[in-house]
Design goal:
Elements (H helix, E strand, L loop, with lengths): L1 H22 L2 H4 L5 H34 L3 H15 L2 H12 L4 H8 L8 H25 L3 H9 L4 H12 L1 H17 L2 H6 L6 H12 L5 H11 L1 H12 L1
Helix pairs in contact: 3-7, 3-10, 3-12, 4-7, 7-10, 8-9, 10-14
């Protein structure tokens, strides 16, 4: 009985923030979404979707390499992947602004191509990829590592190249873990604030717009956008997590 009461107390503690959303009425009492809120929703969803495409295409080969290779170079690569995750996001945003800003050599090089990487949709995409790519790679690496390499070896004995063996055998077997990696990266991409605040304040995504609304209008005015934010981020990871647990 004592153990059950303690567990219920912990669960109630974790659930308490949602009671704040429901208690303030969500859509039915909290007012309407402003045009700026709708623009922020579009920015986050479209920018996040494009970023996820880039993340999956770039991160999956890297995750395969980290899961299947050994040696000092692999350890170095893992350290490079982990560093953005371990950095304070504001610090990472400042470093990105220094590297990709208009006065930096790399920023000028992109500028010559007509791409500005501060306060533009391209900057939003850049910041989102930096925020979410390491999360995807780490989670995908763990999923791929759980697939026994023997299956790849068997496919290779039947005539597949290493690439085809990974594409046809390893990735399908790791699909549940890879789906979870995508969902975690999606939440990370949409929820990033620190990097976006420095590099891509405009166009505002949902986190920046929430911060602006709180400053200008107060807490009570932001609940509709908070609700939309949670609808965009929570259902997919919750469904994938419960589905994986049930199997």
């Amino acid at each position: 009985m004592l153990r059950a009461g303690f567990l219920l107390l912990v669960l109630a503690f974790l659930l308490a923030p949602l009671s704040g959303l429901l208690g303030n009425g969500f859509f039915w009492q909290g007012g309407a979404l402003s045009p700026q809120d709708w623009a922020a929703i579009a920015t986050s969803l479209i920018g996040g979707a494009v970023a996820m495409l880039v993340i999956v295409l770039a991160g999956t080969p890297l995750a395969l390499y980290l899961a299947r290779s050994r040696g000092r170079l692999v350890l170095l690569a893992e350290a490079v992947v982990l560093m953005p995750m371990l950095m304070p996001t504001l610090a990472l945003g400042i470093l990105l602004a220094v590297v990709y800003g208009p006065s930096a050599p790399l920023g000028r090089a992109f500028g010559a191509l007509g791409i500005t990487l501060t306060n533009t949709p391209a900057a939003f995409l850049l910041a989102t990829v930096y925020a979410a790519l390491p999360t995807y790679v780490v989670a995908a690496r763990g999923a791929i590592a759980q697939v026994p390499p023997d299956y790849e070896e068997l496919a290779r004995t039947l005539g597949d190249t290493p690439f085809r063996a990974q594409l046809r055998v390893t990735l399908p077997l790791a699909r549940r873990g890879l789906s979870a990696a995508v969902s975690l990266a999606w939440v990370r991409a949409l929820g990033e604030f620190g990097i976006i605040l420095i590099v891509a304040y405009y166009p505002a995504g949902m986190p920046v717009q929430l911060w602006t609304d709180v400053q200008d209008l107060g807490l009570q005015a932001v609940f509709p956008l908070v609700g939309m934010f949670l609808l965009a981020t929570l259902p997919l990871p919750l469904w994938l997590g419960l589905r994986a647990r049930a199997v």
